[in-house]
Amino acid sequence: MTTPSRLLADVHLSEQHPARTALFLQVLGNQAAASTAVYLLGDIFDIWLGDDDTRPLAVSVATGLRALTTRGVPVYWLAGNRDFLLGPQFGAQTGVQLLPDPVCLDLHGTPTWLSHGDQFCVDDPAYQAFRHKVRNPAWQQEFLAKPLAERQKIAQGYRADSQYEQTLKPEAILDVNRTAIDALWTQSPARRLIHGHTHRPALHVTTLADASMATRYVLPAWEATQGYALAVDTQRVWLETYTA
Ligand code: MN
Question: Which of 50, 74, 98, 234 is deepest in the core (most CB within 10 A)?
Fold first, then answer.
């Protein structure tokens, strides 16, 4: 048995859920600290408007992550659709390493794709149009150049926009598109994918056209007082549940 790595997504940390934040910090100090590596697969923050955000929530999470990396646990961050503005300054402050989405890496001997998952939800054109806009480096540069208060105002405006809000509601998130997933398998011999975003935790096993077997793990979203991580070692993959 080896020390597992742990993968988490969709924690949705916000001031509205202090118990969830406390649980997340507790997991960083305990299970995460006893991991080979920790992979944060997006939407860890319910919203992130720039690395100059110094609200207490941001500071306490950054402090917890810094403590973890200082202990020698590598922590990787792959952005979600809510915290995609997290950038190099946060990385330098915490020691967290930013990953592109999707990324294919060796996870305890098994080549594995990691992704937040929203890019596979191509059946939602309104969401994909929004994603295309805000993932544009020019848009991001312009947005981040605005004062934080103005960014907060713009984000509130987005939330007031019913169509935009609709695309972010957990119950309204469309599932991944099978063809979009299949395109991934053609890009590398890796036959394992781990992602979040859809709030539809599952293990999907499919046989591909080349007769190989592909497995797709979908991480659960954290609840008010309950959290989850997928633990992976050389032998096994299992879900851990944490309760506040
Ligand atoms: Mn998401």
Answer: 50
CA atoms 44, 119, 217, 113: torsion sign: negative
Tokens of 243: 């309760």
Quote the Cα angle for 167-168-173, to 5°.
Answer: 65
Q: Which of 127-131, 133-137, 159-163 has the highest mean pLDDT?
A: 133-137
> Does residue 164 surpass a pLDDT of 90?
no
Q: Residue 58 pLDDT more than 90? A: yes
Ion ligand 1: protein residues whose beta carbon lies under 5 Å: 43, 80-81, 197
